[in-house]
């Protein structure tokens, strides 16, 4: 498997940015996730396509600003935390190791950061990577918040 991460360029001077066009947003991907809302000028988001043999096999949305201190027993990551806002593997390519490989590529690309993700029904995936699961610090609130997974220290 030879995967490449391709960062999408934010157009200069545009007020709002749709990283994926309406036409391409849903091609094997869930277009609600990739064409829901525009990216604002001061956003710290990064969008990546994952390409194999000229085919887009996955997408990643990263966010450089993430708050995790309201979760229990979290390490003091400060600005080193880098959130995987969303990762999606193309419908036809799931279950073949691409998700795991993409996380490895992100780790190589951002060696000084600690990746974190709020799981949306994908606890099995994050756990399989050996990431630790954290719940909201207030047990009464925990069921209203997505579990947080944190990449282990290298
Ligand atoms: C979650 C997702 C990114 C995983 O990508 P993938 O390429 O299918 O995963 P991989 O083939 O690399 O699997 C890696 C491991 O995760 C496990 N896994 C993957 N998806 C899983 C799921 N939904 N539930 C439980 N385990 C899962 C696999 O069994 C595998 O475990 P193993 O290495 O111990 O055998 C992909 O299924 C997807 O795009 N889902 C829809 C979007 C989504 O839920 N994104 C995550 C939001 S937080």
From TrEMBL:
This is GNAT family N-acetyltransferase. GO terms for molecular function: transferase activity. Keywords: Transferase. SUPFAM superfamilies: Acyl-CoA N-acyltransferases (Nat) (SSF55729). The lineage of its organism: Bacteria, Bacillati, Actinomycetota, Actinomycetes, Micromonosporales. InterPro entries: Acyl_CoA_acyltransferase. It comes from Micromonospora craniellae.
């Amino acid at each position: 498997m030879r995967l490449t991460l391709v960062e999408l360029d934010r157009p200069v001077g545009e007020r709002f940015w749709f990283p994926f066009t309406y036409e391409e947003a849903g091609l094997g991907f869930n277009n609600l996730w990739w064409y829901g809302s525009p990216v604002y000028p001061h956003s710290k988001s990064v969008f990546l396509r994952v390409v194999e043999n000229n085919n887009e096999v996955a997408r990643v949305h990263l966010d450089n600003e993430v708050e995790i201190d309201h979760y229990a027993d979290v390490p003091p990551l400060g600005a080193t935390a880098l959130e995987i806002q969303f990762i999606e593997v193309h419908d036809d390519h799931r279950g073949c190791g691409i998700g795991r490989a993409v996380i490895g590529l992100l780790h190589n690309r951002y060696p000084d950061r600690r990746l974190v993700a709020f799981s949306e029904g994908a606890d099995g995936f994050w756990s399989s990577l050996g990431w630790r699961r954290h719940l909201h610090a207030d047990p009464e609130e925990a069921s209203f918040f997505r579990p947080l997974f944190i990449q282990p220290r290298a």
